[in-house]
Amino acid sequence: MEFDDKVPIYLQIEDYICQQIITGALAPGAQVPAVRQLAVTLTVNVNTIQRALSALVEAGVLVSKRGRGNFVTTDEKTLAAVRQKAITTAVAQCYERLVGLGLSADAMVQALQDYIAKMEG
Amino acid sequence: MEFDDKVPIYLQIEDYICQQIITGALAPGAQVPAVRQLAVTLTVNVNTIQRALSALVEAGVLVSKRGRGNFVTTDEKTLAAVRQKAITTAVAQCYERLVGLGLSADAMVQALQDYIAKMEG
Amino acid sequence: MEFDDKVPIYLQIEDYICQQIITGALAPGAQVPAVRQLAVTLTVNVNTIQRALSALVEAGVLVSKRGRGNFVTTDEKTLAAVRQKAITTAVAQCYERLVGLGLSADAMVQALQDYIAKMEG
Amino acid sequence: MEFDDKVPIYLQIEDYICQQIITGALAPGAQVPAVRQLAVTLTVNVNTIQRALSALVEAGVLVSKRGRGNFVTTDEKTLAAVRQKAITTAVAQCYERLVGLGLSADAMVQALQDYIAKMEG
DNA sequence: GTGGTCTAGACCACC
DNA sequence: GTGGTCTAGACCACG
């Protein structure tokens, strides 16, 4: 995995875990890979992983079982919220920036469609 | 102006200046407010402003005239590139994140339209 | 190390690092001395070192690994380009000045050979 | 005329005047253009011109006649020295940098010849 | 310990 | 007054 130097790695890892959950790569109730395992696969320090997981536990997305590991919550409301928040955040950020650049609603949609066409066409 | 803690202030200032240029608030050839002035209005240290402006000078977006101030380039190609890059960057970031979340092209466009409707409707 | 007052220290440090790389004192992939270490040995402020290294990172000559240090790139193309640019820059500057003084091509070569003879003879 | 932002303009103007003298564009005894005239043609502030001329007067290259202007010295020794110094300085700077890059004497001469061939060939 | 960012304050070159 | 450079010293993210 690649990290953007300009934003804290632990935040990027948070997003990464959420992404795994949303896409189903990490199913509800599933065990999250061990901290040391994640540290290896993401080539990141253990402390950095810990920080990211702690935040997710705090948010209720993961539940930590002492001595056994971390698990994805099975609470559907929380999971739905995670998904919705991830999407909204991405879209909102884009919207704000494009508004700042003076684009109209139509121009925004057009810009997105153009980009999608370029990437997938 | 408000700054996001998670990304370097000097980068946000770069974006801010570019935005001013793109929206026409800073016309081609216009003088950029004095470094010390910007420092006051943005409530940021002079050096931080300098760092942002230096990068823009390096990129050719601004030209620095010693003892006189910084000015927006009049080179149309550069200006067009600035605008295009700003839009593409915003859209690309959004696209990448939504792809990571498993959204289809249609779902992406829908999500954007929904958000726009919510904000502007 | 000695610095020339008339040109920014950070630029001289850039050149110094490049020189170390070109001569092999800093091998490809090798770790550059810590910022604070360089600051001590070059008797220069840490920020000044940072500015020089940042430019080299930007240029791809160095790669920065957060919390671990700065390393010389292993990309051969980049390294070759660094070497070539350093030589060309030095020669070009000399050439331009001598042309401005009205010297012929032969006179230039002669002047260089004379100087070399004086220094090494 | 173009100036390199990285070295003081007044030094570049000094070099420029010396160059004019060496190439004969300013003959021995000739009057140097008025300060305000130079300021216009070089698009530089009057004070900056003054500073450069003062240094040359100090060095004996120019002689200042109150109320009448500045004139190129007619002292042949001084003029010869100016020329020699200009050449030596250019060559020495190049030599030092190439030595620092580990080039042999032959390689230096070769690099210069290559560059000349590229420019004039 | 290592790099990255920011602040505060100073000095210089130039207009 | 304007930008450019440098210093000193602090704090944060990361290993």
Quick recap:
Four copies of one chain form a homotetramer. Chain A is mainly alpha-helical and 121 residues long. The first copy, chain A, is built from five helices and two strands, in the order αααββαα.
Describe this structure in words.
Four copies of one chain form a homotetramer. Chain A is mostly helical. Chain A is built from five helices and two strands, in the order αααββαα. In chain A, strands 1-2 form a two-stranded antiparallel ribbon. In chain A, helix 2 (35-41) packs across helix 3 (46-59). Chain A is elongated, with a radius of gyration of 17 Å. In chain A, 23% of the residues are buried. Chains A and B meet through helix 1, helix 4 and helix 5 of A and helix 1, helix 4 and helix 5 of B. Chain B binds a DNA duplex (15 and 15 nucleotides) through residues 8-10, 34-36, 44-48, 50-51, 53-54, 64-70.
